[in-house]
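Lecture notes, unit on binding sites. The following record was shown on slide 14. It pairs a sequence with pyridoxal-5'-phosphate.
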Amino acid sequence: MTNLETPDIKNIENGDFRYLLRGQLKSLKDNLQFRKRIVCDPLCKTDTVEIERYPSSAKVIIDGRKMINFASNDYLGLTSHPLIIEALKEGIKLYGAGTGASALVTGHTTAHAKLEEYLKELTGKEKVLLLNSGFAANQALIKAHLSLGANLILDRLVHASMQQALFNGKNFYRYEHNNLKKAERLLQKYENTSIFTEGVFSMDGDSPDLQQLVSLVRKYHSYLVLDDAHGFGACGISGQGTPAKQGVSFSDIDIYMATLSKACGLCGAFIAADGDFIDYLVNTSKEYIYSTSAPAYIAHGLLTSLKIINGEEGNALRKHLNELTDYFRKEARNLPGNVILLPSSTSIQPLIIGDNKRLMEISVFLKSKGILCGAIRPPTVPAGTARLRITITAAHDRNDITRLLQTLNDAFNSIT
Ligand SMILES: *Cc1c(COP(=O)(O)O)cnc(C)c1O
């Protein structure tokens, strides 16, 4: 067969997929949109640490170089928490390695059932369903609504996992980001609607006004689906997420979905909803039925993670996180250069650079000084809004933020 590195040009005609493939890659490279992975070695060696002083998950080694990580979603630093690591080890002893089957066969273990029960109590919803990832959960949610003939009304900036599932659907309408007046116009126009939005938008760090949204949903007999991937664990009383932060009860959110991969420090996701809806997913969702369930030790570790999040330690971590975020925002207003700090009160702090090329130069500069930030380009964000996505976590300390600010200052002064 032809080697793609050195293709035999003469044998590849215009319609051949390999011709298209190379064209696509070239255009990504030309537009500075070509993505490459980095090999990241977390500096949290957990074998030797004591519970009181666990290592910072905010330090990583990349290409042999130590960096402060401002690109992760490990908001509470729990990816290196010794109690969670102990629970994972215990979980392996109790349940073994993999589950060996999907949930409808023999993959729904005692550990999964206990975790669903815990989340059910926490949210007060009739039923909870665990999925292997937030991506899968959103696919399942969107496809279920499409298959039931609902009209989907979505914030324009909802996560790719929702946008992607719309691919074969027809009945969906998007409104301008967080603009509830525009959302209301769609609610007036269509019946049998479900609204999809996020607690905290992943690339902007902002939130919809949930109280207002809930009243709209009630007024038009709509149905509210909230993806709180970045809010759950990270904000609100006991880490109960964006509804709690905004004084909205879980009972006002028809379907609450959150990932267990961000503030919770592990992986997976859950959907909390009424019993009928969860039963429908269990019976129809391809994402759920045709995928081996996550290992039971993950569910076991998540129970420990949630107890930390919902307890005193979680409160202390969130307080520390808020203090660091406030400090960053206060100082970042004085940064030079033509950058825009978005009005986010969460630990996602985007700085809009605009131009892809300038963003990449700044990103390279920051890396050379030991600072790792997300460099987010279109199509992940709208054209012309390429940005640094800085995420602050409870694993950072004040010195880390000071260093970040100084390095940003140097970067913006030297790259104009
Ligand atoms: C990360 C994310 C997801 C996907 O969750 P995974 O568990 O990483 O698959 C879904 N929605 C939003 C808003 C996210 O930020």
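Take-home: Residues 312-332 form the longest helix (21 residues).
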